[in-house]
Amino acid sequence: MSKRAPGVIDARTAPHYRWGEVCDGWHLLAGDDLSVIEERVPPGASETRHRHTRARQFFYVLEGEATMELEGVEHVLRAGQGLHVPPGATHCLRNASEAAVRFLVVSAPKSHGDRETVAEADAFVFPASPP
Q1: Keywords for this entry (predicted)?
Q2: Domain 16-118 has CATH 2.30.30.180
Q3: What residue spans define the domains of the chain?
Q4: Over the range 70-102, which residues count as b (16 or more CB within 10 Å of their CB) and which as e?
Q5: Given Cys at both, which of 48, 65, 85, 109 links 97, Cβ 3.0 to 4.6 Å?
């Protein structure tokens, strides 16, 4: 029988939560100064466009493909790729692919309690293309 070493973090036993009705998150590290969460987003699911006043975040894709909108610019992130979201930056992650996406979200300080939803009217709008 294998024992887990003290201090080793295991996503299978980490505190779990649901968000957006179909998405999963696991708190791998839940400190006030640093948060590390593994998340799973099924095909077609997305989060609400938002920003964090204090928290800086780094999204790192472990498996699948995520589309991340950051200040109105879309970035497609594949396994092994990440994106930094500075404090105050409007962002939104969605899964436009055919398979679930798994990724890490690293936040410093923690982002829970530091979230402001951004109305579509307040979000970045791409300028019209020249004729």
Answers
A1: Isomerase, Metal-binding
A2: no
A3: 16-118
A4: beeeeeebeeeeebebeeeebbbbbbebeebbb
A5: 65
